[in-house]
Each structure stands twice: as C-alpha cells, then as structure tokens.
C-alpha cells in the first residue's frame, strides 16, 4: 500500500470532500495524512508518497518550482488536483480555457506525476500542453460530496454546523475582491497570486464585485421587509470581511450572518439558495436545491463567472426574485456544468487510480514519526508567534492566513471522519488528530 498526502488550503471549502477521500483510501489499506497546505514546507517530507492537490505550486506562470522540487527530492509524486479547476470568470469556454492555462506550467510535471481534471474541456486543454504526466478525468471531491447518498451520514454534523437552522433562504456571497480580508492595494499588487491578469482588469473586477455586493445586500434587505416570516441566512465567502454584513443587518431580526461551517451543511438544510456567480450554485444543483440566480447586470468591463449564472431561476430584478421564491425551478435534464464537472463519483475514481500505484513500504508508528518530524518546527513556531507581534505586516498576514484556513473548522475533522467511516463501513481509525493535521489508517 502507499502513503498519501492531502493538503487543505481553505478548510470550510475542502475538508469534507478530502476527509471522505482520505477515508476511502484508508479503507483500501493506504495511510493518509490530511494537513494545512503549507505545513510540510516548513519541515521536510518525511516519507516517499503521493501528494493529491495543487498547493506545491504557489504562483501562476511563471510557476515557482521551489516547493515542488523539495517534494520530488523526497520521492513524493504529485497528483495535481485543482480547487479552482473550471469555474472561471468569463462568458465562454474559450475564456475559461485561457484562464486555466495560465494557472500552471504543466511541463514541470514528470512521468511519475498525474493530472486530475474536473471535466472534459479541462482535460482537452491540459492535453494541448503535451505534458509528460498522464491525464485522468476524475471530477472533484468538493462536488462529489453534494450527492444525496452522503446526506444521511452527515445529518448530525449538518445540524450542529447550522445551529439547528433549517428551511431558510440561503444567500451565498463571493465578493472577496471588493470586500476582502486584504486591502485593495494588496489585490492589485504583485503579492497577489493572480499575477497574469492585468491591473486594469482586476480594477474592473473590484468595481463589478462591489456593485453586485450592494445589489445583493439591497435585495436581501428588501426581501426581509416584504417576507417577515421567512428566515434569511447570509454566508460570506471565506475570504470576505463579514463585518460589512453584520453591521448592515444588525437591526434586521430575520437576517442572520453565519460565516462558520462548510457550505454543504447550509445548502443541505436550506429551501432556496440565492447567489450571483458562486460555485456553490453548482454544488446546490447537484444536491437538488432550489436555486435563484440574481443577475441585475453591472457596468464594469469585467464579467464574473458565467457558468453558475446559468443555473436555476435566472432573475434580473427584485420582483422576479420575489415571485421565484414561491415556485420551484425544475433542473435542466442536461445541466450546464456537465462538461466542466464530468464525473460526480470522483472519490471512487481517484481511489481506483491510487490503487493501481506500485505499493510503498507501510510505515509503522506513522503518528509518532510525523510528530517527531514537527518537533523542532513547533518550537520555532512558538518563538515566531511571540515575536511576530512586533512585525506588524507579518503579524497581519499571519492573522489573515489563519482566518482563511479556519483552524476552528479544521477541528471538526473527527466528526467528519466518523461520518465518512460510517458511510464506508470500514475499520479505519484516526491515529493522530492535531490542530493542523490528522492521520487516517486502517485498523
């Protein structure tokens, strides 16, 4: 069997899907470490294995090779799996393809690596680059877990995550450029990871997001007046500043702001989702949730992601939204996202690919070995935490990164693991469960 490293960049977005993937791999006899994505950068990769993710590449083209080379020197191969693999800004697939190709230089991958594509057009774009690594269409675990078959196993977890709220109208926002945790100056600087998009286009994106942010806020405000018996829940994007919504709605009794928890829990327990350009609309469509796309139009040159805006009841003004809330939209027989997310059973597909790898040596006492690997790192970490407060810029950056990752939600890993264990019905264990990583192994 083999060792698998599975990174988590934003826990509220990835933890459920990747925990179920890890549980499936462990049920096959593999050893799995799920961890905060930068954790092993600060130490060494202790054992040969396979990395399933994309966080070894921190920049777009020209792709930085620093972390990738460090992994390869420790005999860790990369199965490149994107979290931003197909839902891009623009109205045409050609625009999405251009954006996808800017993400990474696939020529850096070698024959021992593999590229995992969400869907058909992504795989076609990847193939056009003629990489050495093989390409497989797998879908994404973050979409897989929205299938109904997982819901009953996550029922208790969902109930706790949503504070027992149910049958509410959910509004998912995605305005992290206009209302982000970082200032606009950072977003427009070289420090931002999107370094292949012109400053002019990024400025248009900020204007468009800001306009839509106020459109959406005004919509919810008026709905709350006209539908006083309804409950409205706003879930800001993990990279958004929640204080904007908290201040605007602090006197509105039937509107609640809940930035906590995974989107899937809130989607499974709502009766309608309202959004603009949000990937969660695709996830909600997979689950079968009633969806309203609110798209009144903006004046900016930038257009947000078009794919999610093709889903559900498409409304351009308040009256259309109000009327749509009293009727259920029938899902299209062939959903608009089918070519982008071609496979829904991604966990089984990825696990099957992993099962065909050449086995590596089973590591006895893996939990102890990993803890030892981090011994000196933990000491340095405590030291830097103490002195970072004297370096304001680094202190602020560290605080933002922690908020984006969300260590509190990562702490829910045990609950999610037991839901996955119950689903697979296998004798697997959490042999280590720390604040920034956990290990899943078969008994």
Which helices and strands appear, and what pairs or packs with what?
Blueprint: E1 3-8, H1 11-27, E2 31-36, E3 49-53, H2 66-73, E4 76-81, H3 93-103, E5 114-117, H4 120-128, E6 134-137, H5 141-144, H6 155-161, E7 168-172, H7 184-187, H8 199-226, E8 232-235, H9 243-248, E9 255-257, H10 263-269, E10 270-275, H11 280-287, E11 290-294, E12 313-315, H12 318-324, H13 346-355, H14 366-373, H15 375-387, H16 392-405, H17 407-410, H18 413-424, E13 428-433, E14 437-442
Strand order of the largest sheet: 6-5-4-3-1-2-14-13
User: How many separate helices?
Assistant: 18
How does the overall form come out from the CA principal axes? globular
Structure class: alpha/beta
Helix percentage range: 25-40%
Give the strand tally.
14
Extract low-pLDDT stretches: none
Sheet with most strands? 8 strands, mixed
Kindly provide the radius of gyration, computed on alpha-carbon positions and rounded to a whole number of angstroms.
Answer: 22 Å
Average pLDDT level: 90
Indicate the proportion of strand residues: 15-25%
Our measurement of the CA-to-CA distance between the termini, rounded to an integer number of angstroms, reads 14 Å
